[in-house]
């Protein structure tokens, strides 16, 4: 029986090295993006009355499903 051997010859070629590099980068990308949370706000000005400004807020996180998020409006006191 022959001992276990690893053939690293494909890694010596540029395409083999790039494939390994792609795997490492994709794992690191998803690992750092897994707990991302954010919020976006839009200020809506309603003329002619300046006091009727509203702020629309949307909170989101990974996985990004903005089409399923709800928007809340609140009166902006300026």
Mean pLDDT across every amino acid position: 76
Can you tell me the number of structural domains? 1
Tell me how many strands there are.
Answer: 3
Count of alpha/pi helices: 1
Overall 3D form: rod-shaped
Q: Report the end-to-end length measured between terminal Cα atoms.
A: 81 Å
In the sheet with the most strands, the strands line up as 1-2-3
Unreliably modeled segments: none
The fraction of residues assigned to DSSP E strands is 25-35%
SSE pattern, N- to C-terminal = HEEE
Quaternary state, please? Answer: single chain
Indicate the percent of residues in helices: 25-40%
Radius of gyration: 25 Å
InterPro entries: Synaptophysin/porin
What would your notes on this structure say?
There is one protein chain. The chain is an alpha+beta fold and 78 residues long. The chain has one domain (9-75). 26% of the residues lie in helices and 26% in strands. It has one helix at 14-33, and strands spanning 37-44, 54-61, 72-75. It has a 3-stranded antiparallel beta sheet, with no helix packed on it. The model has no long low-confidence stretch (mean pLDDT 76).
């Amino acid at each position: 029986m022959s001992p276990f051997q690893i053939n690293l010859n494909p890694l010596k070629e540029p395409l083999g090295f790039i494939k390994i590099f792609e795997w490492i980068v994709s794992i690191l990308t998803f690992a750092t993006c897994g707990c991302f949370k954010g919020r976006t706000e839009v200020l809506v000005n309603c003329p002619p009355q300046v006091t009727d400004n509203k702020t629309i807020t949307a909170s989101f996180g990974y996985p990004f499903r903005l089409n399923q998020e709800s928007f809340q409006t609140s009166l902006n006191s300026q």
